[in-house]
Design brief:
By secondary structure, the chain is an alpha/beta fold. The chain has helices spanning about 15-30, 85-100, 105-110, 115-125, 140-150, 155-170, 180-190, 200-210, 215-225, 230-250, 265-280, 305-315, 330-360, 380-390, 415-425, 455-470, 480-485, 505-510, 515-525, 530-535, 565-580, 585-600, 610-615, 625-630, 640-650, 655-665, 710-720, and strands spanning about 370-375, 400-405, 435, 440-445, 540-545, 545-550, 630-635, 680-685, 695, 700-705. A hairpin with a 2-residue loop joins strand 5 (about 540-545) and strand 6 (about 545-550). This is Probable E3 ubiquitin-protein ligase HECTD2.
């Protein structure tokens, strides 16, 4: 809020609007060509489409646009001459604070913000230069920051004069395309800290509406200019937009705002502007702020399925849905959408099975409502492969697992055990499907050729079933894998279309084979003669079953030397070969396996990082949250042993905390819903205190003997969690 103003200093804008109307009438009587017109907030349909539908297979990305768009550039009007510098302004503010005479400061603010021309005259680095490129906005950012930082500490009449000026600028009747000076003014006005106050939201909404309605070429400039804003101020802009959306959805004081039916364009306009900042954020590596900073947790409390269905039904029409802008939807909300969509598909398929059975006059069986997987422990992989291949039509039913010869009723524990054992066996180095890279601590697909890739399809189906049935898997794939898994996010109808192929870079290779990537990076920066010193060609060599095989990276690659001029092409082709071409059949089978279970438009809402979190959970640990949600059996949370336990665990290093979580649950990562979703339980073990703790990973249960002191508990716990490889099955 405004720090020095009275609580209701901007309680209404009727006096502002009245003033503007009077100005409008007076100017109109003088037949001025520039008339001030109040926007008609009821007319919603005159807005252009808010966004491109995210379901389009080839989305137009901001960074795919040409560097300079060939749009008609209107002539820039001549700017007034303003000579005040940052130091001059700071001196004026200091004098005003000491003397109490704010006239000079008031005059500066009221003049500067009275029109878009004046804004440019004050804040443009050089009024004689056009600054019409995406590389340089021409804005004196330091001056803008100083002026805005001082604004909230000025008297009310100064702050009101700024808002009056902004209204003057926004109520102009625009004709023709915007100039670059107009775009500069929009960029500067967006940073006004007054818009954090709800009493200014009517003005803020009109500013956002005008920016949202700009052409794509104008948005292109705003995006590139925005990426130059400092991290702190960029985050403030994003937070301000998120707060605006949240308070419009759930106002603390509804009477502060116009009725929702009269301002349905507020939220779409704000979301479109937020999309520009999201695009700017994605243009830089590393990004300015985390993608999670764009999440709006308020959306977790709206009817998400209605949003999802609107998006499915109306797509790229004028009907707004937050699903058109998935970056604003939190991973928790996306998980809810995916789970409910999955449940609806499960129910639909189960209902169809029931109808088919009845129509054939057969007795219904409850088992027909589930995907029933029966496996023998000694033939776990082959039995699982056979079961899933035989029951393709049932993959979207609720999973139930039975181990042959064991009297176990699957209430979730057997399903989790099946996943744990199967994943551990498939990813074992001796199995040969995946290669474990110690430097990066992740698995990657083996490039060995074989006759049958069905087991890769099984792994993909397992990952899909895990997401579908809310099981967290202990899998270590690099981020590149999840990027490929969403390429494309919907299985193409044409089976000849390539799948699992995405643009890969040296950064992707660093996440899998850092040593090799480092070598290629050295090649790119080598200052000597690459051709004479390296003597390489456009060819790679791989060992397969003891035999060295060569592959050309391009036609006649074995005859093309790598030189200083073509080394970038060589590195790019090398990386593409390793991460795309050499494993295409393996990954394609994996891709089809995953999508055989998870075929849903909801996948279009996900980033690759979010798919990883859904499959493997989040790496962020909060042991205090785990303590609050832990259940006890045989213990009370006030018992001495339990108090010892949490004292020890909260004092553990992050590495030991991860080991504890892995020991007790089978994974050192946290489900999307946080620690509370683990349903972690500590049970009293009626055994000798000489015994180590025991875990039942299928049930996220830790069995803890009643150790007599904290030192003994810590010693036994560390031994147990540090030597927890393998399963002891009774």
């Amino acid at each position: 809020g405004l720090e020095r103003g009275a609580k209701n200093q901007f309680s209404t804008f009727s006096n502002f609007i009245t003033t503007i109307n009077q100005k409008k009438e007076g100017i109109g009587n003088r037949n001025s060509p520039t008339q001030l017109v109040i926007p008609n907030i009821k007319n919603v349909r005159d807005l252009p489409p808010i966004c491109l539908d995210v379901r389009q297979k080839q989305r137009i990305s901001i960074d795919t646009l040409p560097q300079e768009l060939k749009a008609p550039v209107p002539p820039e009007p001549s700017l007034p001459i303003r000579t005040k510098t940052v130091k001059d302004f700071q001196d004026d503010v200091e004098k005003a604070k000491s003397s109490g005479d704010w006239k000079a400061v008031h005059d500066f603010y009221s003049t500067t913000f009275d029109s878009f021309l004046e804004i440019n005259a004050a804040f443009k680095k050089d009024t004689n230069s056009p600054f019409n490129t995406i590389e340089d906005s021409g804005i004196n950012a330091k001056f803008v920051n100083v002026v805005y930082d001082a604004l909230l500490n000025t008297p009310q009449d100064v702050q009101k004069s700024v808002l009056k000026g902004i209204i003057n600028g926004l109520l102009q009747e625009w004709k023709g395309p915007r100039t670059k000076d107009d775009l500069r003014a929009y960029c500067i006005l967006l940073q006004n800290p007054q818009f954090s106050n709800t009493s200014t939201y009517v003005i803020y909404a009109h500013l956002l509406r005008q920016i949202a309605a700009l052409t794509e070429a104008d948005h292109h400039f705003l995006v590139h200019w925005s990426k130059k804003i400092s991290q702190r101020r960029f985050k403030q802009l994003v937070d301000r937009l998120l707060q605006f959306i949240s308070l419009r959805l759930f106002p603390a004081k509804p009477e502060e705002f116009p009725p929702m039916v009269k301002c349905t364009w507020w939220i779409p306009s704000a979301t479109k502007v937020l999309a520009l900042f999201n695009a700017a954020n994605s243009l830089i590596s590393p990004s300015i702020i985390s993608y999670t900073d764009f999440y709006n947790s308020t959306l977790d409390h709206i009817d998400l399925m209605e949003e999802y269905h609107n998006w499915q039904c109306y797509g790229n029409s004028h009907r707004f849905s937050f699903c058109q802008y998935p970056f604003i939807i939190s991973i928790a909300a996306k998980k809810v959408i995916i789970q409910r969509d999955s449940e609806q598909q499960m129910i639909s398929i189960a209902r169809q099975s029931l109808v088919d059975k009845v129509s054939r006059r057969q007795k219904p069986d409850m088992n027909m409502l589930f995907l029933n997987v029966k496996v023998r422990r000694t033939y776990l992989v082959s039995d699982s492969l056979d079961e899933l291949a035989r029951k393709k039509a049932d993959l979207k039913k609720k999973l139930k697992v039975t181990f042959v010869g064991e009297a176990g009723l699957d209430m979730g524990g057997l399903t989790k055990e099946w996943f744990l054992l199967l994943i551990r066996q498939i990813f074992h180095p001796d199995y040969g499907m995946f290669t474990y890279h110690k430097d990066s601590h992740c698995h990657w697909f083996s490039s060995f050729k074989c006759d049958n890739y069905s087991e890769f399809r099984l792994v993909g189906a397992l990952m899909g079933l895990a997401v579908y049935n809310s099981i967290t898997l202990d899998i270590r794939f690099p981020p590149c894998c999840y990027k490929k898994l969403l390429s494309p996010p919907i299985v193409p109808c044409d089976h000849n279309t390539l799948v699992g192929i995405c643009d890969v870079t040296l950064d992707d290779l660093f996440q899998i084979m850092p040593e090799l990537a480092h070598g290629l990076s050295e090649l790119l920066s080598y200052e000597g003669n690459v051709e004479e010193d390296f003597y390489s060609t456009f060819q790679v060599f791989q060992e397969e079953f003891g035999v060295i095989k060569s592959y050309n990276l391009k036609p006649n690659g074995d005859k093309i030397p790598v030189t200083n001029q073509n080394r970038k092409e060589y590195v790019q082709l090398y990386v593409d070969f390793l991460l795309n071409k050499s494993i295409y059949k393996q990954f394609a089978a994996f891709y089809y396996g995953f999508h055989s279970v998870c075929a849903s438009y909801a996948l279009l809402l996900l980033r690759p990082e979010e798919v990883e979190i859904l499959v493997c959970g989040s790496p962020e640990l909060d042991m205090s949250a785990l303590q609050r949600s832990t259940q006890y059996e045989g213990y009370q949370k006030t018992d001495l042993t339990i108090r010892y336990f949490w004292d020890v665990v909260l004092g553990f290093s992050l590495d030991l905390q991860k080991k504890l979580l892995h020991f007790a649950t089978g994974s050192d990562r946290v489900p999307v819903g946080g620690m509370a979703d683990l349903n972690f339980k500590i049970s009293k073990s009626e055994t000798s205190t000489n015994w180590l703790p025991v875990a039942h990973t299928c049930f996220n249960q830790l069995c803890l003997p009643p150790y007599k002191n904290k030192k003994e508990l810590k010693q036994k716990l560390i031994i147990g969690i540090s030597n927890a490889e393998g399963f002891g099955l009774e």
